[in-house]
Amino acid sequence: MFKELNPLIHSQLRLAIMTLLLSVEEADFTYLKEKTNATSGNLSVQLDKLNNAGYIRLTKDFVGRKPRTSCRLTETGKRALEEYIESLKTYFEL
After folding, report:
1. What is the DSSP letter of 23?
2. Tens-place pLDDT, residues 14-44
3. Domains of the chain, earliest start first
4. Which residues contact 64 (CB under 8 A, 6 or more apart)?
């Protein structure tokens, strides 16, 4: 039987963000934008959705006079991604 895939993670861009954050301790907005080829607006919206779900933690500060947004995967986000992967595996088991 197929397990339902988490719709919040199932979005291509949100899945890309989550998997990128899994491999690094922290990533800034520019890094994520470059790696995902997302527009600033779309990336910002998707980061807010993941932040509101508690899957990532956003930190906004300044480096000199330039604003900097950085992201970290939370424990809740790691568990959600692990559950998503386990659910996805059920689609390959025959």
Report:
1. T
2. 999 999 999 999 999 999 999 999 999 999 9
3. 7-89 (1.10.10.10)
4. none
- Give residues with Cβ within 8 angstroms of 11, minimum separation 6: 46
Q: Give dist(CA 27, CA 20) in Å, integer.
A: 8
Look up the pTM and report it.
0.91
Return the beta strands (E) in 1-94 as ranges: 27-28, 56-63, 66-73
The pLDDT tens digits of the residues spanning 57-94 come to 999 999 889 989 999 999 999 999 999 999 999 888 75
- The two tokens of residue 26 are 């922290």
**Cβ atoms of 27 and 71 closer than 8 Å:** yes
Helix, strand or coil for residue 12? helix
Three-state helix/strand/coil letters over 21-34: HHCCCCEEHHHHHH
Q: Which two tokens stand for residue 77?
A: 């986000």
Q: Which two tokens stand for residue 94?
A: 């025959």
Helices and strands in the chain, H and E counts: 5, 3
